[in-house]
Every structure is written in structure tokens, then in C-alpha cells.
Design goal:
Layout lengths: L3 H5 L4 H20 L5 H13 L7 H18 L1
Length: 76
């Protein structure tokens, strides 16, 4: 269920679900690829292109990937 604030901002279950799937995809890539590898870069591009929606800012998406990978790589 969306909160009133989420509704006012135009967020709905599908949009929130897309963000969750993006984060999950980034985590999967972080866990299965080496930092700085060509495979990782290619998979990031694939995720970004497969989630091209008008409400997802590409710069935010790439920053999100950087944060996810930085945190995940620190734990490894």
C-alpha cells in the first residue's frame, strides 16, 4: 500500500516494485562480479537500459548502483 505522500508524488506499487527490482539486480551483480570488471560494467548498463522509465532518473540510477556496489564491495 502506498502512503498519502507516495500517492501525491505519483508513486504506486508498480513504481516502487521497479525500484526494488533494480536494487535487487544491482545486489546480484555486486555479488557475482569483480569490482571494475568489464562484466560488471556491462551488466550495469543492461540493468539501466531495461529499467528506462520516465520516473526513473538515469543519473540517480547510476548513483544508486555506485552506492550499492561500494557497500557490497566493502563487505566482501
Amino acid at each position: 500500500m502506498c502512503s498519502d505522500l507516495e500517492r501525491r508524488l505519483g508513486a504506486n506499487g508498480q513504481k516502487i516494485g521497479n525500484y526494488r527490482s533494480i536494487i535487487t539486480a544491482f545486489l546480484n551483480v555486486a555479488e557475482t562480479t569483480e569490482p571494475g570488471s568489464a562484466v560488471r560494467a556491462q551488466r550495469i548498463e543492461e540493468i539501466a537500459h531495461s529499467h528506462e522509465h520516465s520516473y526513473i532518473d538515469e543519473a540517480l540510477l547510476l548513483r544508486l548502483s555506485e552506492l550499492v556496489f561500494a557497500l557490497r564491495d566493502q563487505r566482501a
